[in-house]
Amino acid sequence: QLIISSHRSLLSTSVQILQMASAEDIKKLLKSERFSVGLIPQLEAYLISQVDSAAYDFEANRTLIKLYQFFPTNSNSDCITVAGLLAMIYGELSEFGAISCLIPESQKSVEPFPLLIRAVESRDACTFATFWSVFDSIVGGDSVNRLVKSDKARTALRKSILNTISLSYKNIGVAQALAHLDIKSEAELSSFVKDNATVENISSDTLTFISNAENTKRDKVSQEGGVDYSTIRGLMASATVADE
Q1: Which of 10-19, 146-155, 196-205 has the lowest mean pLDDT?
Q2: DSSP assigned state of 38
Q3: For residues 77 and 68, is the Cβ–Cβ distance under 8 A?
Q4: Which of 17, 96, 19 is nearest to 56 (CA)?
Q5: Does the model's pTM come out above 0.90?
């Protein structure tokens, strides 16, 4: 525990002393020192800066996790969790897996990483109420806790979930939308979707999405007896969300 506390203290100090390299500086360092142990403190500082800035950098974060593989004694469990959280919140769907596969099972079995895995699985299964419950229960070091409680992170997650729902439904009840997005009031929901490109309008009881190829029912003409995969993807997405 003393060693871990000392490492975290050093990390906190490095964040302050290094005055965090810019994204451009980090890109240059990744080209010249990608496999250098000396790059770890700068990548850690850069990672922690993303907690508040939301300036997500997948390549830099993945490189940090790779360096932990090469230099396990320099590994920091909080940074590993933060990297996973950032990938889930701001990254493409594949990026959490790309980060997670680089982490030893021994570290992924230690909380809060198992909770993070459960959160990702719940989100991907479109069981959004479960997702929010698990996400809110994630507790770690200071950076982990700040990220879980971040308004920027919550907004990004809600936008992602809203986009997922828009690919399955043309209309959804306001009560359902509130539960899926973990929003407490209709007024807050109206404010949230006001400028969202996926939303057409919101009434007292219905949220209507802009029509797209996935949420609009229409006759499909198969080409040379082929299968319309867009229809199947829409049906599968609808079935997954409906199962919630």
Answers
A1: 10-19
A2: G
A3: no
A4: 96
A5: no
Q: Is the pLDDT of residue 15 over 90?
A: no
Q: Is residue 57 helix, strand or coil? A: coil
Q: Tell me the C-alpha distance between 174 and 169, whole Å.
A: 13
Instruction: Report DSSP letters for 176-220, one per residue.
Output: HHHHHHT---HHHHHHHHTT-TTEEEE-SSEEEEPP-TTT-----
99 and 83 in contact (C-beta within 8 Å)? yes
Q: What is the secondary structure of 67-119 as a DSSP string?
A: HHHH-GGG--HHHHHHHHHHHHHHS-TTHHHHHHTTS-HHHHTSTTHHHHHHH
- Closest alpha carbon to 79 in 163, 122, 140: 140
Rg (CA), the chain: 21
In tens, the pLDDT along 167-217 reads 999 999 999 999 999 999 999 999 999 999 999 999 989 999 999 989 986
φ, ψ (nearest 5 deg) of residue 129: -60, -40
224: left (phi over 0), alpha (psi -120 to 50) or beta: left
Choose the weakest-confidence range: 14-23, 41-50, 160-169.
14-23
